[in-house]
């Protein structure tokens, strides 16, 4: 398609999405749930038809020399399909919060005032590689009564088209507008620029992908963006932490998986417990090949431990830039801090305001950490890896926000809604 | 001040606000309430000192040839001061919602997850003429635990400086950071451009003023803006409306005051009731000198009524542009619609999504209007003039939002806060 056609295509998607969003906003819960259950069935029943489309994407990606992990993320294995189908069924089983009215109270004038939860309208989703995101976004749009325009990665275009056809079929079976979920049909990169600059049609953009993509979108978007750029998450081991619990949490936060945004990238240890805790966690990290970027105090303690040297521990002097770093790898920064004040100060200065945890027995410290650490998710005595829509009980997750405006932290159905005021009177007027 | 100094001044305000916001976020409710009560006392006790500053502004404005209503808005009369002082006392008496934790529930993993209400950080307020806004914004900043940078109109600079000194004194008396509320000290218009482009210091901008100012700010701001551009509000008189109630509500919505954003600018009447309702409301409008811009059907009914002609009713044929218009004057557009579908269709097409009301006895129509009209405030059987923070029970109002993102409708304390996730565990890790 040439540039002119890209513009026309996006305009037409926008117009159709806007029209569909008005119908979705008043769609009965039963119809939305029927669409979700039908979609789950179609996914399970049409694996044979999805396979060739997915194979074409994988073949093209392999030929283009994409890395093995990138190609892996493209794969619609039976397990991946079953997982997204289950997600649809779970969303169908959840209560429908659209139309709920909260806080209805009578005012001195006699009017009763409350707030009704309504869909936000149209969201645009921009993502890369993993085609299962197509189903996650579609199912969240359906449940939340929004319309969505999906822009997947060019490497997954065949898979995404095949999946989008199933979504259309499910919408039609439930007598919902088929334009409620639309896939951008061109892989032209110009389409992204168009999608993020149509405030007349699109209410919010949700990008998922590399930092470069998200920065570009945030800079150029003409509508609000729900996003996080970095996950520079911390665990602070307080002086009163139970050693076993602290070891388990720090180990899990760092090493359970290296790539998620909620994995820990920084470890802060209170000075009084450093000499006992650091060698123990250092041994675990050494055994797992995790490089430790340490401040002087932490390095001194770790280097003084002969056992760590035997284990081949990689103890490196940290640079100032390490405190800002999101490694997404087998690397962690480590700093000994005087206590809770220094820990909160360090986190509020260097953290990406994503997820930060404290391990402590001290009630006052726990309360202060929760209140004063300025991050989307603050955690006492559990792994940072829990910061996730499913683990938080949201039922699903469309993304994670590190902004304070509108949605903060894992974003589920509620983040795709807004509250409008509803007023019930019996003829009251203003005097 | 030259441009360089404006930049330095704003940078320094931003830095100081950011630092103050961290202290305000953890300030005890007692200290914030003490500051508010002290401010109320200072306002009442220092009228003699406020008077000369206010007189200087009024003299300058009069000399500059500002209109009488503009000069009126500048005046800090004893009544204006008592009203803002009472507002401070009322805020002090309200419960403090900062730090409240909502929805704490245990998840299958064992962790308990809830959300804590925290201040948004720093807000910038840009406003014109009325110096009492300085106190309203300052008191909302204090109660909500935010820091604020206030940029009032140049015509009110002396009054605003005098009021800001009282705010500083009140903060100091309560041992709160005096930088929690700062006034931009220059009247250079460049300061507005700077204030809206400091995302490192300012989390949200709240403009109040003419449409031109707000459009410019929305276009150029590098941070979110809480705003409404227009208040093109409607009343729909349904076929089953009680005539007396409908007359009272439409009259009040249009004529109680012409200038507020929540005054009605459009009247829609269901066809079956048009012949009985329109002459009755027409007589009221004629008596009050309200010009009626009518579609053909409404004009025919009104012109057929001899009594209206005697009253000197101004019945004008509406142009398409009338349906979009926010008159803020003794003018109303009038259209006869077939029924609820046409009414909702008209409103969703032409309304500014601010406030729209229906007068009806029909339960199904009332429910549909509430659900389907896409406006920040939707009202059944009461005047649009109620769409206001005080009338809605918010205790105070920093502005009204017609956006769907974050805050919608009248914005009080809650709109100046965000919810962060808090997680309480007993050593849980992700498996």
Structure summarized in a few sentences:
By secondary structure, the first copy, chain A, is of the alpha/beta class. The first copy, chain A, is 44% helix and 20% strand.
Describe this structure in words.
The structure is a homodimer of 431-residue chains. The first copy, chain A, is α/β, with parallel strands linked by helices and 431 residues long. Helix content of chain A is 44%, strand content 20%. Chain A contains 15 helices and 16 strands. The first copy, chain A, has helices at residues 3-25, 29-45, 47-63, 68-74, 78-93, 132-144, 157-173, 190-195, 211-220, 243-255, 271-288, 296-303, 306-310, 340-350, 363-372; strands at 101-106, 112-119, 122-126, 147-151, 181-183, 204-207, 233-237, 264-270, 291-294, 315-317, 331-337, 355-359, 377-382, 399-401, 409-411, 417-428. The first copy, chain A, has a seven-stranded parallel sheet with strand order 10-9-11-8-7-12-13. In chain A, helix 3 (47-63) packs antiparallel against helix 7, helix 6 packs parallel to helix 7 (157-173) and helix 10 (243-255) crosses helix 11. The longest helix of chain A is centred in the first third of the chain and has 23 residues, at 3-25. Chain A is globular, with a radius of gyration of 24 Å. Strand 13 of chain A pairs parallel with strand 16 (417-428) of chain B, so a sheet runs across the interface.
Distance between the termini of chain A: 61 Å
Find the count of extended strands of chain A (DSSP E, 2+ residues).
16
Query: Biggest interface and which pair forms it?
Result: A-B, 65 and 65 residues
Inertia-based shape of chain A: globular
**Which parts of chain A are unreliable, with pLDDT below 50 for 5 consecutive residues or more?**
none
Question: Hey, roughly how much beta strand do the residues of chain A contain?
Answer: 15-25%
For the sheet with most strands of chain A, the description reads: 7 strands, parallel
* Class inferred from helices and paired strands of chain A: alpha/beta
Number of helices of chain A: 15
What's the oligomerization state? homodimer
* Rg from Cα of chain A: 24 Å
Helix content of chain A: 40-55%
């Amino acid at each position: 398609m040439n540039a002119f056609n890209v513009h026309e295509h996006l305009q037409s998607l926008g117009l159709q999405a806007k029209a569909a969003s008005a119908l979705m906003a008043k769609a009965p819960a039963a119809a939305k749930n029927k669409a979700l259950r039908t979609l789950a069935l179609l996914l399970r029943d049409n694996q044979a038809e999805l396979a060739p489309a997915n194979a074409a994407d994988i073949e093209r990606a392999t030929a283009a020399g994409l890395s093995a992990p990138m190609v892996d993320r493209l794969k619609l294995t039976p397990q991946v399909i079953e997982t997204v189908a289950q997600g649809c069924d779970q969303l169908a089983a959840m209560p429908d919060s659209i139309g709920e009215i909260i806080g209805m109270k009578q005012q001195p004038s006699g009017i009763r005032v409350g707030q009704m939860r309504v869909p936000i309208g149209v969201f645009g989703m921009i993502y890369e590689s993993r085609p299962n995101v197509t189903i996650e976004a579609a199912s969240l749009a359906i449940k939340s009564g929004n319309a969505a325009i999906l822009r997947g990665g060019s490497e997954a275009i065949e898979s995404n088209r095949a999946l989008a056809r199933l979504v259309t079929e499910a919408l039609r079976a439930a007598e919902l507008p088929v334009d409620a979920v639309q896939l951008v049909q061109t892989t032209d990169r110009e389409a992204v620029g168009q999608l993020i600059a149509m405030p007349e049609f699109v209410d919010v953009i949700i990008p998922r992908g590399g930092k470069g993509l998200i920065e570009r979108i945030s800079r150029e978007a003409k509508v609000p963006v729900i996003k996080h750029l970095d996950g520079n998450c911390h665990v602070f081991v307080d002086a009163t932490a139970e050693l076993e619990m602290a070891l388990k949490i720090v180990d899990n936060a760092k090493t359970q998986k290296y790539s998620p945004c909620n994995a820990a990238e920084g470890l802060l240890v209170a000075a009084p417990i450093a000499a006992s805790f650091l060698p123990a966690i250092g041994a675990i990290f050494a055994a797992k090949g995790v490089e430790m970027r340490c401040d002087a105090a932490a390095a001194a303690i770790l280097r003084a431990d002969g056992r760590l040297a035997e284990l081949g521990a990689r103890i490196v002097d940290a640079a100032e830039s390490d405190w800002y770093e999101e490694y997404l790898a087998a690397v962690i920064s480590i700093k000994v801090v005087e206590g809770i004040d220094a820990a909160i100060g360090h986190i509020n200065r260097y953290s990406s305001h994503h997820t930060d945890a404290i391990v402590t027995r001290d009630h006052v410290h726990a309360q202060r950490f929760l209140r004063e650490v300025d991050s989307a998710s603050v955690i006492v005595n559990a792994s940072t890896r829990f910061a996730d829509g499913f683990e938080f009980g949201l039922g699903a997750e469309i993304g994670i926000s590190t902004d304070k405006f509108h949605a903060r932290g894992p974003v589920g159905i509620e983040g795709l809604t807004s509250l409008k005021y509803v007023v019930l009177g019996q003829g009251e007027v203003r005097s």
